[in-house]
Amino acid sequence: QVQLVESGGGLVQPGGSLRLSCVASGFTFNYYSIGWFRQAPGKEREWVSCVSAFRSTSYTEVVKGRFTISRDNAKNTVYLQLNSLKPKDTDVYYCARGRPSADCGSGLGYDYWGQGTQVTVSS
Questions:
Q1: pLDDT tens digit string along 44-98?
Q2: Interior CA angle at 56 toward 86 and 20, to 5°?
Q3: Residue 69 CB-density burial (10 A; 0-12 exposed, 13-18 middle, 19+ buried)
Q4: What does the pLDDT read at residue 102?
Q5: What are the angstrom distances between the C-alpha of 106 and each of 31, 43, 59, 102?
Q6: 100 vs 9, 16, 28, 57, 117, CA distance in Å?
């Protein structure tokens, strides 16, 4: 079955960095885009970034220049490097599989989700 497992979250001070990982299994990884989303309790889920099967990348405006997404098809893994973190980046971060027919940068067309990893930015 399709599985996505996130890791790498934690507590970091403002200005710090984290690298999130999303390990996928149960499907042909290199055929699919992978996206990252984040959500705080009581708030709507927000699309953050994605990397397509062709390795093109997209970012929401508020993280451009601070976050970097990449994929390693040999390891079935997508990474999200978080730099210059701010308290407002505090959220649960989820990775999700994007349908091949969808534009991953639209934030739509995702069909499987991981369980999430908590990122807390605080002094």
A1: 999 999 999 999 999 999 999 999 999 999 999 999 999 999 999 999 999 999 9
A2: 40
A3: buried
A4: 80
A5: 18, 19, 10, 8
A6: 28, 34, 11, 15, 25
Residue found under tokens 């149960």: 26
Q: Identify the three-state secondary structure at position 77.
A: strand
Confidence of residue 41 (pLDDT cuts 50, 70, 90): confident
Backbone phi, then psi, for 47, in 5-degree steps? -70, 135
**DSSP 8-state symbol, 64:** T
Q: Please state, in angstroms and rounded to a whole number, the distance separating the CA atoms of residues 75 and 95.
A: 16
- Distance from C-alpha of 96 to C-alpha of 103, rounded to nearest angstrom: 13
User: Does the pLDDT of residue 108 top 90, yes or no?
Assistant: no
**Strand pairing category for 33-39 and 3-7:** unpaired
